[in-house]
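User: I'm writing a tutorial on reading structure tokens. Could you give me a worked example: one chain, its sequence, then its tokens, then a sentence or two explaining what the tokens reveal?
Assistant: Sure. Here is the example chain.
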Amino acid sequence: MPIKMPIKTIIFDMDGVLFDTEPLSVRAWDYAGEKMGFGPCGYMSLRTLGMNKPAIMKVWAEEFGDRFSPDELDRHAHAFFDRYYAEHKTPEKPGLHQALDFFKSNGYKIGLASSSRRETVLKHLADSEITGYFDVIVSGDMIAASKPAPDIYLKACKLLGEPPENCYAVEDSKNGIVSAWQAGCRVVFIPDLWPGDEETERLPAVKVDDLLGLVKWLKSEK
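And here are its predicted structure tokens:
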């Protein structure tokens, strides 16, 4: 009987997993919605969690029709974020540095698969001084089909040189979970704004509370 080798590759989503940025998106879209005359639109964050920009804009257009302008949403959301980040660093999830230290010191390959634009991804990583932990960074503007399509995870696995079944994928959104599962990764669910649902309950290999809970679970798997 062949010996089962431990999985030593892990791919993280960014927003809601590494950084506590999802509530900021709610606030930004509340602000933008008010400016565009739609009223607070933070609820759209839950409908678009894990999607890249083109997919997000499509959902907004479906919601608001001809009244919606992608450029206007971009402008007002950027204004909100510019003011916020002029005074604050990217808010980190608890245990971020400890978890990454664990993976790096234990010989894991570490990837990032975020639907955010590369410019945004690199800024957040630099803010927290964690860019060097990642062997591969795949952003939403590097792939054509957004989560829940598997493309972003398939690309990350290919760049890491590992088959998907040998990779953990850490996600907080339904779109992300479905994307990673369809790619063939072993999915770890860390709830954030979205608490989970019955439809996707069977997909993750495990559900943990936070990054340190993930480390604890992996230690128990040895």
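What the tokens reveal: The first helix runs from residue 22 to 36. The chain has two domains: 9-20+92-221, 22-85.
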